[in-house]
Amino acid sequence: MISILFGGAVSMVLTLIGTRWAIKWLANRGYGQEIREDGVQSHMIKRGTPTMGGTVFIAATIVGYFSAKLFVMLTTGAGSAPSASALLVLFLFAGMGAVGFLDDFIKIFRQRSLGLRSKAKLAGQTLVAVIFAVLALQFPDDRGQRPASPFISFIRDIGWLELPLILVIIWVLLLIAGMSNGVNLADGLDGLATGASMMVFGAYTLICIWQFNQSCATERGVGAKCYEVRDPRDLAVVAACLTGALFGFLWWNASPAKIFMGDTGSLSLGGALAGMAVMTRTELLVLVLGGLFVIITASVILQVGYFKITKRATGVGKRIFRMTPLHHHFEMLGWEQVNVVIRFWIIQGLCVVIGLGLFYAEWVTG
Where exactly are the structural domains of the chain? Predict the structure, then answer.
């Protein structure tokens, strides 16, 4: 428990201090956000706001995790080496962030609102995701438990949904791509994606603590209700570091934002969410915990699909929403940005409550 609290606190402090420095450093070099001309016109005043803020909370999370490991080792003399599960989540987190960083850098360098071409961006995401998926099926512990499993999971592995290796890799790839692009789409209003992600990682901190207390690897966890998760305590430290880092970043990212996370941040957070889901055997539950990201992604899919269908049928494309992603629809209706963000945070909070309720109810009913 000490490592969880210490890691979260270190990450939060580092982000609070580091983001302030990053704002000045990025602004002095003109590394500002470009705004789409066809987007919400009220957002044009945000042009030039420093971006790539995700680099700060990526670094703070990684430093926070290793600091927690070192702190426990020095204070108790009983620390353990970083686990395979934690290192893999951090790899996915940083790897997706690197793809986003390239995208952000091209936007800044070429002074345009679009960075990497879609095929190049997808290729980068795919490469990182496939490496993660393959490695996650390696590294068995002394009980033969690996970081990931070949089963699709909800709250535990679903016994009749075992997949062959190639389908496991494809499933993990789809989960990572879906969550990373979901967070990316949500990152359109000041603080929206940051606050929503913070809630989900906070939920995963609680889930991992519970899984550790009820782990099949411990005497107290033996039984039908125990959890077959390889490194739940270390995953709790990672989740706490992510939560703390986002707390610190939100101080500067809340409206009016002094800095944006950019694709560097949004892709990395989505990757980390998917990674936590894979490692904790909650791959379908993350769709509930991160329900806001699912809703926002669905709004884009519905808008594009309906437009194409109606254009093919009538020759004139029609839209369901005034603009997507969904938060821009409410802006177009006249809602203030802050009101949209707060109400969407409420929706995300409800999703987290429902997700944690399902998780606990499964254990109670067993």
Answer: 2-287
**And the tokens for 189?**
């209003």
Least confident of 90-104, 219-233, 347-361: 219-233
> Would you state the structure tokens that stand for residue 282, as one six-digit string?
């909650």
Phi-psi sector, 90: left (phi>0), alpha (psi -120 to 50), beta: alpha
pLDDT band at 28 (very low <50, low <70, confident <90, very high): confident
Per-residue pLDDT band for 112 (boundaries 50, 70, 90) equals: low
Q: Which two tokens stand for residue 13?
A: 């402090």
Token pair listed for 30? 């003109």
Which amino acid appears at position 219 of this protein? E
Tokens 């939100």 belong to which residue? 250
Instruction: Note the pLDDT tens digit of each residue in 290-328.
Output: 999 999 999 999 999 999 999 888 888 889 888 889 888
Distance of CA 179 to the CA centre of its chain: 7
CB 366 within 8 A of CB 339: no
pLDDT higher than 50, residue 128: yes
Distance between CA 310 and CA 287 in Å, rounded? 29
Cβ(88)–Cβ(136) below 8 Å = yes
Q: How far is CA 329 from CA 119, 322, 346, in A?
A: 28, 5, 17
The dihedral through the CA atoms of 88, 93, 97, 100 has a sign that is positive
How many whole angstroms separate alpha carbon 350 and alpha carbon 101? Answer: 32
3-state class (DSSP) for residue 227: strand
> CA–CA separation, 67 vs 12, rounded Å?
13
Q: Please, are residues 176 and 270 in contact by the beta-carbon 8 Å criterion?
A: yes
Q: pLDDT of 207-264, one tens digit each?
A: 999 999 988 877 665 566 888 899 999 999 999 999 999 999 999 999 888 999 989 9
CA 172 to chain centre: 14
The Cα–Cα gap between 289 and 202 comes to 10
